[in-house]
Amino acid sequence: MKILIVKLSSLGDVIHAMPAVQDIRLAFPQAQIDWVVERGFAPLVRRCAGVHRVIEVDLRRWRKSPWSPQTRAEWSAFKTELQRERYDAVLDLQGLTKSALVSWLARLAPGGKRYAMANRTDGSSYEAPTRWVAHRAIALPRQLHAVQRSRLLCAQALGYTLPKAISYGLAGQGGDLQAELEVVPVVPPTRRPCVALIHGSSRADKLWPLTHWLALGARLNDQGYTLALPHGSQQEQREAEVLAAQLEHAIVWPRLDLDAMIDALGTCVGVIGVDSGLSHLAVALDLLHVQIYNFDTAWRTGPPQTGHQISVYGQPCPTVDAVWQAWLAATGVLPAAPSPGSR
User: Fold this and answer.
1) Which has the higher per-residue pLDDT, 187 or 305?
2) CATH tag, 177-330
3) Which end is more exposed in the chain, N or C (fewer Cβ atoms within 10 Å of the end residue's Cβ)?
4) What pTM was estimated for this model as a whole?
C-alpha cells in the first residue's frame, strides 16, 4: 500500500500530524508513506519515523511571484516529483484550498481514493475545496485535539482502530550539532542540567511578560539549572539577551535552523514555553514540559497532560507561581493539579 500525507504547514500543525503516521505504521507495517510539506518544515518530516519520501513544496514563496520563470519552473518540478508515484490513499490532513490542490494533483493507483475532512473542527481553519476533491469526506467531532483530528481521519479512512498510546516517532540527532553551532555552545560547559525557555511567539497575545520569565529563571537557577534561550527573530534575540544579562546561568543560543533546533532541544532536560511551534516540538521530543496559555485553548493544541507534560492557563496570563507549580509537578516534585485549560 502506498499512502500520501498532505500536511503542508505550520510547524505545530506538522508536529500534530506525526502521530498519525505512527498509527498507520502499526496498522500497515509494509505501507510506503510519503509526505508533502512546505520546504521549511521538511527537516522535521525527514526525522519522522516511517516516512519514505518527503516531497517539498514552496507555496508560501511561490505565491509572492506566481508568474515568474523561476516559480513556473519550480512548480513544474514539484508536480513531476509529486506524480512519480501512484497512491492507494491520499490523505489531506490540512483541510485548506492549497492542500486540496496538492491532493487533486497527486496520481492515484487503480482503486485509489482521496480522503479529507468533511467539516471544520473548533479552533481549526477549514476551506470547502478540501472535500470537493475527496472521494470520501470524513465527518469529525467538533471538539477535537489537533493530534486526534489527524489520527481519527487516518483511522477512519484506512479502516483501523486507533491505538491508545501516542507516539510522534521523532528521530534523534541528525548530524554534528556542535560543528553546526560553530563557536557558540548550546550544551553548558558545566554539569548543570539545561532547561530551555521558549519565550518568543509570532503572536504578541501569546507572550508571557519578561518580568515573569526573570522571576521563573531565578527559581530555576536556584534549583541548579542552566537556562537556554532560543530565538527566531531580532526582537526575540534582544529579549533573550536581556534575560541572559540578568540571570546567573543562561545561554543565548545562536539562530538555529530547524534541524539544529531539534538536536539542541534534545540536549535539554526540559522546556518551559508559550504556545508555539517550538513548545509543540518539546512535546514530540517527550521532554519535561510546561506550556503557557493566555487563552483557554490548551484542550485543542496543548500537551496531553501525561504528568511530565502540563499546560497552564491564566488570564490575562498565568502567574509565575502557577507555572512554577506546574514545573514541579512535571518533574515529579509535586502532584499535578487539574488544568483549567483541559476538557
Assistant:
1) 305
2) 3.40.50.2000
3) C
4) 0.92
Place of cell 476533491: 133
pLDDT (0 to 100) of residue 171: 72
Whether the domain at 2-158 and the domain at 177-330 fall into the same CATH topology: yes
Q: Is CATH 3.40.50.2000 the classification given to domain 2-158? A: yes
Q: What is the pLDDT of residues 291-304, one digit of tens each?
A: 999 999 999 999 98
The tens digit of pLDDT for each residue in 238-284 reads 999 999 999 999 999 999 999 999 999 999 999 999 999 999 999 99
Count the alpha carbons within 13 Å of 122 in the hemisphere toward its beta carbon.
12
